[in-house]
């Protein structure tokens, strides 16, 4: 038999594999997170018909005469290039911008995928379309996430209770409005409002009454009495009074509690806050006045922040670019629920395709480098969008023609070899 016939057979097999790869790419043109595959060919063994010879003093050298014995598949490579964005508006659709894979778990096996179309199972766990559980880190009771901890199933339980938190800190801002013409103590009175919560989550509204005592118009120093009391006038807990001094360019200084006059003091930088016993917690709520100044005009002093809240339940969640899942509760609180884990590899092409757009660690992929989105070489995440297949149909149709012509040409070689053998048989006649 002729060597050409067997070489052509290897060509048929190789181009059939290329055709299979192209067909699979085209079939997955609309598969979320699919990555294009490409075939790479290489020559098989060659037969040396004549060895080469180096030049000597009398003759020139000769090159070896070699006949190739066909082609074989060298590799099927995967193009992990970024796919286009498909906006869906669905809260559970996540897209990776850049390098990395979502980490999932199927049974006891860790898998990796770029397809971010997730949903929930009956236990509130985040899963892929084929039921694999999405991995990450859950937050503790305070909303803190340890990304150095062990991976676990991500879980979002709508309606989960958030217990109340007593107010321990209130931040005040803007201006205590000075009346430079008020020479008599008590003629300039300003009232600010603050809302706090006790340990049961019950809202308490406070009046912070500022009474101007005196003003030094030459230095700009002003002296006040601050009375903190319940807005409804109740005396449980009892109102408390402080003396306060404001100076240009310095933090306010307080005396008390129980002050009856605004005692001047030069102890700056040590009394930035005052504690009101009995409100919010057993130790009281600390009011921070470092952002407050005394001015003749401007915006009146007000409470701009406080850290307490009433009880609530989880109503929705959102995803940030670093993969943090933030829960939104019915009491308007926002707290981290968990964070999606991502993985990257030294050689993603070495991953084993497990089907269902998932990959497993391969012998040549390297170990999975786990981290949070946006750290190291890991990409960022977008919610409400999916990564489309990166299949380029124009390239695939071109590859289809190349595979078809290559297969056709090799079949012609077999036909020609058959005709040569027929002529050889006919020599006997």
UniProtKB/TrEMBL annotation:
Highest taxon of the source? Bacteria
Main localization is other
Can you give the residue ranges of the Flagellar basal-body/hook protein C-terminal domain? 383-427
Record-annotated Flagellar hook protein FlgE/F/G-like D1 domain positions: 95-153
One cellular component term (GO) for this entry is: bacterial-type flagellum basal body
- Tell me the compartments it is located in: Bacterial flagellum basal body
From the Swiss-Prot or TrEMBL record, give the protein name.
Flagellar hook protein FlgE
Which species?
Answer: Klenkia brasiliensis
């Amino acid at each position: 038999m002729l060597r050409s016939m067997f070489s052509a057979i290897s060509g048929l097999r190789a181009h059939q594999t290329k055709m299979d790869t192209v067909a699979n790419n085209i079939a997955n043109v609309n598969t979320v997170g699919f990555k294009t595959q490409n075939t790479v060919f290489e020559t098989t063994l060659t037969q040396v018909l004549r060895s080469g010879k180096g030049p000597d003093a009398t003759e020139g050298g000769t090159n070896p005469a070699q006949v190739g014995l066909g082609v074989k598949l060298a590799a099927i490579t995967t193009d992990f290039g970024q796919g286009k964005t498909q906006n869906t508006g669905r809260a559970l659709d996540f897209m990776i911008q850049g390098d990395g894979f979502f980490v999932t778990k199927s049974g006891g096996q860790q898998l990796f995928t770029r397809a971010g179309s997730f949903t929930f199972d009956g236990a509130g766990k985040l899963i892929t379309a084929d039921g694999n559980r999405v991995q990450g880190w859950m937050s503790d009771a305070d909303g803190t996430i340890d990304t150095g901890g062990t991976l676990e199933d991500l879980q979002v339980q709508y309606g989960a209770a958030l217990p109340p938190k007593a107010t321990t800190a209130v931040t005040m801002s803007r201006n205590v409005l000075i009346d430079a013409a008020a020479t008599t103590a008590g003629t300039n009175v300003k009232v600010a409002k603050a809302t706090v919560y006790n340990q049961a989550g019950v809202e308490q509204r406070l009046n912070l009454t500022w009474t101007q005592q005196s003003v030094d118009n030459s230095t700009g120093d002003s002296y006040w009495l601050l009375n903190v009391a319940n807005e409804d006038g109740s005396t449980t807990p009892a109102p408390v009074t402080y003396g306060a001094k404001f100076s240009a360019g310095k933090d306010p200084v307080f005396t008390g509690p129980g002050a009856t006059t605004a005692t001047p003091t030069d102890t700056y930088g040590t009394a930035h806050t005052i504690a009101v016993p009995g409100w919010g917690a057993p130790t009281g709520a600390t009011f921070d006045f470092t952002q407050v100044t005394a001015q003749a005009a401007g915006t009146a002093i007000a409470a701009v922040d406080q850290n307490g809240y009433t009880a609530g339940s989880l109503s929705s969640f959102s995803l940030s670019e670093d993969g943090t899942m933030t829960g939104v509760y019915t009491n308007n609180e926002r707290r981290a629920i968990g964070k999606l884990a991502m993985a990257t590899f030294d050689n993603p092409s070495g991953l084993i395709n497990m089907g269902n757009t998932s990959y497993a660690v391969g012998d040549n992929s390297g170990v999975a480098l786990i981290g949070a989105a946006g750290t190291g070489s890991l990409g960022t995440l977008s919610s409400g969008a999916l990564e489309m297949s990166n299949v380029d149909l124009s390239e695939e149709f071109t590859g289809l023609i190349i595979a078809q012509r290559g297969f056709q040409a090799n079949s012609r070689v077999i036909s020609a070899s058959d005709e040569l053998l027929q002529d050889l048989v006919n020599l006997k006649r």
